[in-house]
Design a protein that fits this description.
heterodimer, A: alpha+beta, about 25% strand, B: alpha+beta, six-stranded mixed beta sheet
């Protein structure tokens, strides 16, 4: 049994290695932990991408923002533009794993790991994020929402490397929130999660995007919930109705973390809280980042 | 103006000698050691929780290049071993009884080759019905986990019968008649899941033979039990086995008992190489035969209107898992906790410890107590509601005090039980107004001290420093690290003057190990005795030199000096360097458990009376997210009577850690199994320990009762009690918020949510 390891200095070098079957590793927080846990053995051929400068950084462009694949959760949480305009993403990155996970784990790895329980997935989908995939033969753009095809599965080709994620400007007057059901405050993963991006125009919801996490094989938006919210005042009754629609769209499983019944019931609670916090933020009210601990016990 | 820092008291400023190496990363744990020529061990575990083994073929594994040894039951002596019942073989022979049973061991050049060799081992099985339910396992027609239970040797008092490996009763007066005459009767049933010890350091063992003697480095809490275990399974003299424990990365009881040293020693002998075993985190969950047992607890209590407890009946069922090990005393220990630290006039408790095909359970920090206390203390709150009495007031009226009569008519010496209650409710602010999703719960518990043999040597070195040679095992609590404080005090020296030689079975006398909160209690006594001998020698030598009577001398500040004339003195360094040797040995008299009347009780294993009981009241202030069932502990108050506190930093550390461990056991920690008794969450993401971020503010009070018949200076144990009443206090707070008890431990968010809607999950 032999294993190869290449330390790529450039994207070209990385995708070349991937074209012959190597799997990329950046922070290693999924790959290595998964191997130790017996989920999947370490790949035979590994290409390390952590030293590729071109994959780093968070840059603003025309109201939107570009996350290099190597942007860490700690960098995302600390970024002032993300905290202010893409607050739900900051909510999510702030509660991924532990301090160590957040300082090593990258957004690229998080997205390509395609866990239906990943924290950042809902915010990326709601903000309309687009991933750039690069292979030896060229590059293409795919909406993050279309990237996941099932738990741990993506539509990317084996030779494609995610290099960046572009997030367009959010709707005017929008506030956003990602909230999850968590049993403890660190080292946790969503049992149920919900994202809400809500824009207000003169006190009325003009745009709503709602996604559910850990409630289906992939993270996805729920049109019925969004429709229930648009045109309302975004108040308690409207949030409740939208949350109910989100819960009805859930297809939860029973596992060691929760039963399907409990997950479905919690889908309504957590979605309602995410909507309420997003509306509060849209109104300019302060809800701390991350929102989840602040929403503990919220009525 | 300069600020003057207030000097801290000596005991407060005591810094444990192993602290710096641990926190700076230079400390060596077993897995850090590498021996020349070392190769690696891996185990082939059972593929079934219950099956007959019809064929084992290791030929392909043996033929793999790089493999040095593959061993099965055929390659080691046919010996059954086990702490209280000898019911198992080193390698499974004709039957496997749980998913962690070891069928074969491999030693190979690399871990990868060892793993590959394991995958080449062929085993044929005839699957048998899996005995999972430990209540159903008592049925006469239930499949037997051990068909040959009658021929297995074991403690006579255990009351073994088929799958029942232990049976114990506490009988006092006539509980049936008293129950019939009670003003109020409350009945409750509680269920607990099993949980794990989860030391951060996974187990590691290295064995190296020199001729017919073996040295084993092992992450064990009980080196002397490990030595005797290896001698038994390999049929060699104990003196041929030397166990050395490098730094131990936590145990919590999970590293008690003899475990894997025998397998690794056998592999090293066959391979003619040093062999190293290091567990993965998954093995640390699945392969260790040590976890906190699941229970079913049925309680019924009758009281008079004034709260007097006239009768308690109870039936307890405990899941022992596949093998007995050292945990055979659990039935009796659980029965004592079903009575608790209360005055109860009539008692009839029946407790059964049951074999199943689940992972074996054994001592985890205060074995059996947290689960039973969780049930009993909720039951007491239910009784208080039925009596329309405040639960703290009910406890005030019924807790034991000096002169009270225990469950087996033990009469208690001076104890601070009621004082712990008052201190805890005072610290937490019991009775104050709280938001409706917050509440305070209070719970009381107890735990015995264990008197045991222990021995220590103290010697002085030529430069005037000293060494303590002790059999005691340090598992992280700091108990061994604090022995110099006791010794230095006898000799007028400083704690930092002493080095400690420990955790080497060739160096020091036998010790029970780091278990039962007994290290300070017993080894402290031994070290003090040894120091007293050295003290006598020093005084004699100084008396000769100063030409005075030894009675006129005192040992102060590193010198022997004449009382009242400190200028007339000789330093201990001078005496020690003079050519005379100073050395002492001590063991001290083992305190005995007090008299009791346990005539009506069966399964008496020595726990029917509690020696120097440690007494506990915990109070938890919690907030419940009522829509989700998630519980957060906001504040915690812990009041303990552990007798005299010798090292406040160390003792407080035990309470902080024990409370946080208890919160995990209360809310999130449990091992889940599939229908074939395989663990579903053997990893740290889904076996949810609580984190530092979840820890509440914890306030501590020590009720330092002068305790007769206790350890050094009247000290009792400290390590286990902080785990005992924690989940109970949290439970009583949660019940107040949601209006209904959660009858299943841990009280997970989903269970709290269901209970708040009237459903027991």
């Amino acid at each position: 049994m032999s294993r190869t390891f290449v330390n790529a200095a450039s994207v070209e070098e990385a995708v070349k290695a991937m074209s012959t079957g190597a799997r990329p590793v950046a922070g290693g927080t999924d790959l290595v932990v998964g191997a130790r846990q017996g989920k999947a053995p370490l790949p035979e051929a590994i290409v390390a991408i952590h030293a590729i400068d071109a994959l780093r950084g968070i840059t603003g462009s025309g109201g939107g923002i570009r996350l290099g694949a190597l942007a860490t959760h700690a960098e995302i949480v600390a970024h002032p533009v993300i905290r202010e305009r893409f607050t739900a993403l900051a909510d999510a990155s702030a509660i991924v794993g532990s301090h160590a996970t957040r300082s090593h784990g990258t957004i690229g790895g998080n997205v390509m790991n395609a866990s239906p329980a990943m924290e950042t997935g809902g915010p990326l989908v709601c903000f309309g994020a687009v991933a750039t995939l690069q292979s030896a033969s060229g590059s293409r753009e795919v909406a993050v929402a279309d990237l996941w095809s099932g738990p741990g599965q993506t539509t990317a080709e084996p030779g494609e490397l995610l290099t960046a994620i572009d997030i367009p400007a959010p709707p005017a007057g929008a506030g956003s929130c990602y909230a999850r059901l968590e049993y403890r405050r660190q080292m946790e993963i969503a049992v149920v999660g919900a994202t809400a991006v809500v824009a207000l125009e003169n006190g009325t919801v003009s745009d709503a995007r709602i996604a559910i996490t850990a409630l289906a094989p992939t993270i996805h938006r729920v049109a019925a919930a969004e429709e229930a919210l648009v045109g309302t005042d975004g108040g308690r009754a409207a949030a409740e109705a939208a949350a109910q629609a989100a819960a009805e769209a859930a297809a939860p499983i029973s596992d060691v973390r929760a039963s399907a019944d409990y997950r479905r019931a919690m889908a309504a609670v957590i979605t309602r809280r995410a909507i309420a916090a997003a509306v509060a933020r849209a109104r300019g009210e302060s809800v701390p980042v991350p929102a989840s601990p602040a929403l503990f016990g919220a009525i | 103006m300069a600020t003057v820092e207030k000097p801290r008291a000596a005991a407060e400023s005591f810094i444990r000698p192993d602290g710096k190496e641990k926190v700076t990363g230079i400390g060596r744990y077993t897995a850090d050691l590498t021996l020349t020529g070392q190769i690696y061990a891996k185990f082939k575990y059972s593929d079934h929780a219950h099956a007959r083994v019809t064929r084992i073929d290791v030929s392909k594994a043996r033929a793999l290049p790089g493999v040095f040894a593959v061993l099965t039951h055929e390659d080691v002596p046919e010996v059954k071993y086990g702490g209280m019942v000898q019911d198992r073989y080193l390698f499974a022979k004709d039957k496997v009884r749980w998913e962690g049973d070891i069928i074969a061991g491999v030693a190979a050049l690399t871990e990868e080759i060892a793993e590959q060799a394991v995958s080449l081992i062929e085993v044929d099985y005839e699957p048998l019905p899996v005995v999972r339910d430990f209540v159903e396992a008592l049925a006469e027609d239930a499949p037997l986990v051990h068909e040959d239970w009658e021929t297995d040797s074991g403690d006579e008092e255990m009351g073994r019968l088929r799958n029942r490996v232990g049976y114990s009763t506490i009988v006092k007066g006539d509980a049936d008649a008293a129950m019939a005459s009670a003003d109020v009767v409350v009945k409750s049933r509680y269920v607990t899941d099993c949980a794990q010890g989860v030391p951060i350091e996974p187990r590691a063992v290295i064995a190296q033979w020199t001729g017919d003697k073996v040295t084993i480095w092992s992450s064990t809490q009980v080196p002397y039990a490990a030595r005797s275990g290896v001698a038994t399974v390999l049929q060699i003299p104990e003196s041929h086995v030397r166990i050395i424990v490098p730094l131990l990365g936590g145990g919590f009881g999970a590293k008690c008992d003899f475990h894997f040293e025998g397998h690794v020693a056998a592999l090293a002998r066959a391979a003619k190489r040093p062999v190293k075993l290091v567990f993965s985190r998954r093995e640390e969950f699945v392969a260790v035969d040590h976890r906190r047992e699941g229970m079913v607890i049925e309680l019924e209590t009758g009281a008079r209107k004034d709260g007097t407890l006239v009768a308690r009946r109870g039936r307890l069922f405990l899941d022992k898992g596949a093998y007995c090990g050292e945990g055979g005393f659990f039935a009796q220990m659980a029965a004592m906790h079903a009575c608790g630290p209360y005055v109860i006039e009539n008692i009839n408790i029946e407790s059964s410890l049951v074999y199943t095909n689940n992972q074996p359970s054994s001592s985890i920090r205060a074995p059996t107590a947290p689960q039973v206390c969780w049930a009993v203390e909720q039951h007491m709150d239910e009784l208080a509601r039925a009596l329309d009495m405040d639960p703290v007031e009910l406890r005030r009226r019924t807790l034991i005090e000096e002169g009270s009569e225990g469950p087996t008519r033990q009469i208690f010496d001076k104890i601070g039980m009621k004082e712990t209650l008052e201190r805890a409710v005072e610290m937490i602010g019991y009775g104050k107004e709280l938001p409706e999703d917050e509440a305070i719960g209070v719970a009381c518990g107890w735990w015995p001290c264990f008197g045991a043999q222990a021995g220590a040597y103290v010697k002085l070195n030529n430069d005037g420093t000293g060494s303590i040679i002790t059999g005691a095992q340090e598992n992280g609590t700091g108990a061994v690290m604090a022995l110099p404080v006791l010794v230095a005090e006898q000799l007028g020296m400083k704690p930092e003057d002493f080095s400690i030689l420990y955790q080497d079975t060739d160096a020091a006398p036998w010790d029970m190990g780091s278990c039962g909160s007994q290290t300070t209690f017993n080894s402290g006594r031994a070290a003090v005795e040894a120091a007293i001998e050295v003290r006598k020698q020093l005084l004699q030598a100084a008396a000769e030199q100063l030409e005075v009577s030894p009675d006129d001398l005192e040992l102060v500040d590193g010198a022997a000096r004449v009382k009242g004339a400190p200028e007339k003195s000789v330093t201990i360094a001078e005496l020690a360097g003079s050519g005379t040797t100073f050395h002492g040995a001590g063991s001290g008299e083992v305190p005995e458990a007090p008299a009791c009347d346990a005539e009506g009780c069966v399964g008496r294993l020595g726990l029917e009376s509690f020696l120097a009981p440690q007494l506990i009241t915990h109070a938890a202030h919690v907030k419940v997210d009522r829509e989700t069932g998630v519980v957060r502990v906001l504040r915690f108050a812990a009041a303990h009577d552990s007798g005299k506190i010798l090292n406040p930093i160390g003792a407080n550390g035990q309470v902080y850690g024990g409370v946080v461990m208890g919160i995990g056991q209360a809310l999130t920690e449990h091992t889940l199994f599939d229908e074939n008794a395989r663990q579903l969450n053997p990893h740290l993401l889904d076996y949810k320990l609580v984190t530092a971020s979840d820890a509440p503010q914890i306030e501590i009070a020590w009720v330092e009762t002068e305790t007769p018949n206790a350890g050094p200076k009247g000290a009792k144990g400290v390590g286990e009690p902080p785990c005992v009443a924690t989940s109970a206090a949290i439970a009583n707070a949660v019940t107040k918020v949601i209006g209904r008890p959660v009858r299943h431990l841990p009280m997970t968010a989903e269970r709290v949510w269901a209970a708040s809607q009237g459903v027991d999950l």
